[in-house]
Amino acid sequence: MNPIIAPSVLSADLSRLPEQVEAALAAVGEQVGATFGDTENPLLVSVRSGARASMPGMMDTVLNLGLNYETVEALAKRAGDKRFAYDSYRRFIQMYSNVVLGAEHHLFEDILDNYKHLNGHNLDTDLTAEDWRAVIEQYKAAAQDELGEPVVDVGDAIRERHRHAGGLRRVCGPTQGGIAVKIA
């Protein structure tokens, strides 16, 4: 399945960002029959930087933007798998905290390793949905302690990708077609 990419997600004028994000989410939601923030059929998106030429490993992506305690239950119901849904939510919190808020990646790896050690688990796949929910609480507490209360916002994720893309343009030189931020 090809990704659905929202058209014209970001212009150089960041003052128009809220209306562009709203239009992009509506466009993607219409194509897939889901709504961002809906507790029955939530639209989950990834926010990534992109360029005409691939630059693997150069730009981080935030996956599963749209997950929270209400939408994760809808995902679990639709997927028929609570463990998958809570693991996805845990990964989202980790990515968002690292990529957008600047939390160190090891902070979350340490929490997960400690939780597995204390609860007799060797692999991530040994954890249940309830285990992931407990890990999520620890992730949220750690992010709050390190960064203050994180506000999860599509606009913040896009602004961070745009900022990062600008830095890459300086490091890598100009790219044909520029670097864009995509909601997919």
Question: Top keywords for this entry?
Answer:
globular; 6 helices; Dna Ligase, domain 1; Acyl-CoA Binding Protein; 2 domains; about 180 residues; three-stranded antiparallel β-sheet; disordered N terminus; 3 strands; mainly alpha
Give the SSE map:
Elements lengths: L16 H16 L12 E7 L9 E5 L3 H11 L2 H19 L4 H14 L10 H19 L6 H19 L6 E5 L1
Antiparallel strand pairs: 1-2, 1-3
Helix pairs in contact: 2-3, 3-5, 4-5
What fold name stands as the CATH topology of the largest domain?
Dna Ligase, domain 1
How many structural domains can be distinguished in the coordinates?
A: 2
> What is the string of helix and strand elements?
HEEHHHHHE
Spatial strand order of the main sheet: 2-1-3
Strand content: 5-15%
Q: Return Rg in Å.
A: 17 Å
Please report the distance between the alpha carbons of the first and last residues: 12 Å
CATH architecture identity of the largest domain: 2-Layer Sandwich
Task: Name the average pLDDT.
Answer: 76
CATH superfamily of the largest domain: ATP-grasp fold, A domain
Main beta-sheet strand count, sense and barrel state: 3 strands, antiparallel
Instruction: Output the number of helix runs.
Output: 6
- Summing up helix and strand content along with how strands pair, one would put the structural category as mainly alpha
